[in-house]
Structure formats: C-alpha cells, structure tokens
Amino acid sequence: MWAAGRPIVLCSDDLAPSSIIRRDLYMHRFADEEAITAGDEVVVTLDCSAHTLRLQSPTVDHIVHIQREHQQQQQWVLNVNFARDCFEVKLL
After folding, report:
1. Where in the chain are the domains?
2. 60, 52 in Cβ contact below 8 A?
3. pLDDT tens for residues 43-69?
4. 77: exposed, middle or buried (C-beta count within 10 Å: 0-12, 13-18, 19+)?
5. d(C-alpha 26, C-alpha 7), whole Å
C-alpha cells in the first residue's frame, strides 16, 4: 500500500497484527496474497470526515489515517495496482 507517493505497507509483514481478522485463512494463503487474492470481495471506504481510508477483505480490516498535510486537498485519487499477477477488478 502506498499513500501520498510513499509506501506505508510494503509487504504482509508490515501489516499491523490488529489488522488481520482471519489469521487462519491469512496464514494459509500464498506469499503476497495474504491480504487480497483472486476472488476476494474487497471493500474500500473513504471517510472524509474521519480522514481515513479503510480496506476490508476476507482476511484483513486495515485503516489508513490520512496525514494532516493531505487532509485539505480537494481531490483524492484511488489507484488500484497489482504487482505481478493479473486480476479482474470490478468497481461498484
């Protein structure tokens, strides 16, 4: 995960243990697919009042706190990128 052009979670080892909601499933997935893998429904919630971005998948519930210097910007852009694999993404 990146925010404001800087990495905030580079790999699953950087994810806070409190963000892992299904450790059993998380631990049985392939490396780099613990948080999100093919077939997962992922909910991304931007809360402009709380200045947070929340990412929920079957294995994680992670909240990113938007830094103060970025809170007053009028536009935020959500980019969905995948490193090595091919995924189908459906935005609702």
Report:
1. 2-70
2. no
3. 989 888 888 889 899 999 999 887 776
4. exposed
5. 21
